[in-house]
Fold:
Amino acid sequence: MKLKNPELFQQANYWNGQWRQSSTGEVIEVDNPSTGKIIGQVPSVNRAEVADAIDVAERAFQSWRQEPAHTRAKVLRKWGDLLLTHVDDLAEILTTEQGKPLAEAKGEVRYAASYLHWFAEEAPRNYGDTIPAPKTSQKIIVQKQPVGVCGCITPWNFPIAMLARKVAAALAAGCTVVAKPAEATPFSALALAYLGECAGVPGGVFNIVTGDSAMIGDEFTENPKIRKISFTGSTRVGRLLQEKSGRNLIKLSLELGGNAPLIVFDDADLDLAVKGTIAAKFRNAGQTCVCVNRLFVQRSIYDEFIKKLKVAVEALVVGDGHDEGVTIGPLIHQKAVEKFQKHFDDAVAQGARVICGDGKANGNFVKPVLMTDGKPSMMFCQEETFAPLLVAVPFDTEEEAIQLANDTPYGLASYFYSNNISRVMRVTDALESGMVGVNETAISNATAPFGGVKWSGYGREGSKYGMDEYLQVKYVLLGG
Ligand code: NAP
Structure:
């Protein structure tokens, strides 16, 4: 990696304002999914070290919560600014460890910065209430206080943005954080910590540990000093964390897996729908939680839409994310390639027709696939594919489309294209998901509440609701 500021690439953990190695000397090696080459290593800390980081965060909480909100805001704003100043280096680190094209990596860094800037604005707006009391001699005051030390666990697909949107809200609220990034992509998170230090985040307020994920999860859920866990990742692990954190009644936010439907009605602008489908399906090589996983197209426009979509899918360019013009990077690892192939083979076996792509892999690289004649019984309809594979399913009526779209235990995002305002209102109301994109698939931004329903979890990130996840309500009755 050629970085303008090599200090952004930290191969250490960070707690109490210090860069640290594990006392055991154990490490985790991290590779580049494009080349398979090792790019560096991070410590694999033991449980006592995780507990130490939590202790440090607990001590730092006592002073950070007392800082005026405007002071916390100033630090967050500077942190966001620094991300933008270092966007090229951060994108370089991100592409090298995660694989996404450089342009997307830069987009992710800007998106991460937008959460730091947003919550810098929200910190001073942590309003409470006064409520008319039952007696004239009384006053009721409601204030919102930070919950305490937060354990934040993040996935590999958006390694800097997923962490920034948790940490920004937590620190704005006055909480402190111990974060655990995914072992496949720790360097973006560590770069974020480095810039936090430069921005003036006091030692102990933001800490990062890397190591065995189950062990760190156990410490987060069993250590009574952790008062909040915010997790982004699979439904399987989310469920596990919910079960384990129940004993200590830890406040929880779970941003989990999705299985997003995209419906194209016959009154839609088809060119717009093609553009939206491509962006929502193939961004990050199909590895986003809000990725279109199921495509439902009304039969009367089916052939025309597929024809247009084929041209757009064939224009995608697979390759190393560093290379000019590449729009589809590698999948993160071989397990992801195997899932892609399993979904491809299953769809073919159940009668889907291949329009482009071939289901083959070269290392972690796969060609984007478009298929038609999909059926709800196919594997891609049951679970996230998390790869660039798109199978179109025809439908006839609006009722059928809604039924198909909701026929999943997941409920993160859904999308549809229609120019009929009555239909827009009906379908928006009927879709069972936390977020709905109408004639638009770029739904994620700092001003909007991001989150799911059903097996996609609960809690919201970003927006005016995001800070509530890190606050608790205290009511005071003033008598006498
Ligand atoms: P994952 O396996 O659940 O991992 C997510 C994080 O949890 C990683 O840091 C992982 O660490 C850690 N982890 C694994 N086992 C754990 C345990 N027993 N206790 C505590 N932490 C544990 O998910 P993934 O495969 O990395 O990410 C893809 C999933 O995330 C998809 O389902 C996607 O839809 C979802 N996602 C959701 C959102 C959202 O906002 N709703 C956003 C992005 C992704 P290691 O990797 O180091 O093992």
Remarks:
- The first strand starts at residue 13 and ends at 15.
- The chain has a mean pLDDT of 98.
- Residues 153-158, 162, 180, 182-184, 213-214, 217, 232-234, 237, 240, 255-258, 289, 384, 412, 452 surround NAP (CB under 6 Å).
- The chain is about 40% helix and 20% strand.
